[in-house]
Amino acid sequence: MSDKKKQPGYIKYLFGGLAGMGATCVVQPLDLVKTRMQIQGEGGAAREYKNTFDAFTGILKKEGVSGIYRGIGAGLLRQATYTTTRLGVFTALSETYRQHQNKAPGLLERMGMGMIAGATGAFVGTPAEVSLIRMTADGRLPLAERRNYTSVVNALSRIAKEEGVLMLWRGCIPTMGRAMVVNMAQLASYSQAKEYLLSTGKFADGIQTHFVASMISGFITTAASMPVDIAKTRIQNMKVVDGKPEYRGAVDVILKVVRNEGIFALWKGFTPYFARLGPHTVLTFILLEQMNAAYNSRVLGQSGGSSGL
Questions:
Q1: pTM for the predicted model, two decimal places
Q2: Is pLDDT at 203 greater than 60 in this prediction?
């Protein structure tokens, strides 16, 4: 049995959250553009933006730099809850598998672990997700209909007070469904791509490998998760009129989008979503790998080191 020192369990969660938060500081504007594009056209309304560039420049001109970063507090809180949990759970499950099976998990095992990690993280992070969606969408509403949350804390407290605590978990089921798809695709494809690249003998376990593997992962994840992401976004942003919600659930959203806007509307905002998810995936995994390598080197006295992914 190896006497090699191991990282404490909490480090996996801490590094996961910090990596996600660091990446969010860079990609928040793209997340806002993606949300605005996904909710335009609801109820047959005219499209406000022609494309990603039009949306970005329009928001910047109308709302300024602060408008582009609207909801950053909620975005950071989401990473502190959702990403901390999902990456921590995934790496813990991966290491447990290695210890008991004396081998790395295969693709199917990684997909299963990704689904468990995603569902767990999504449940923990849904309140921050609801706040983020509402804060990023607020700027496109008429002045009389804006919620005007002043911060993520204000958003959370007002939602709980005005709509009930359970409303903080509005859209929890589609959010968990999206997270299961995202993490099944993202974590499994990153691990598998990284393993394959290293097996070719042309890549070393460094930033170049992490970058290529995470870009592959980002593209696969974007294509797989956009339909459930649109369902989640619209459910979390919907308003209840005369006690009747606009959508009955995720399936209802998807059916109405296909019927009213066409099947390709399920991938509406693909460019900003990939532009957001691609760099976010790259930055998250690179930061995570580098933090683990630094910890293993400086604290445990080991060269290099793996993130467990």
A1: 0.73
A2: yes
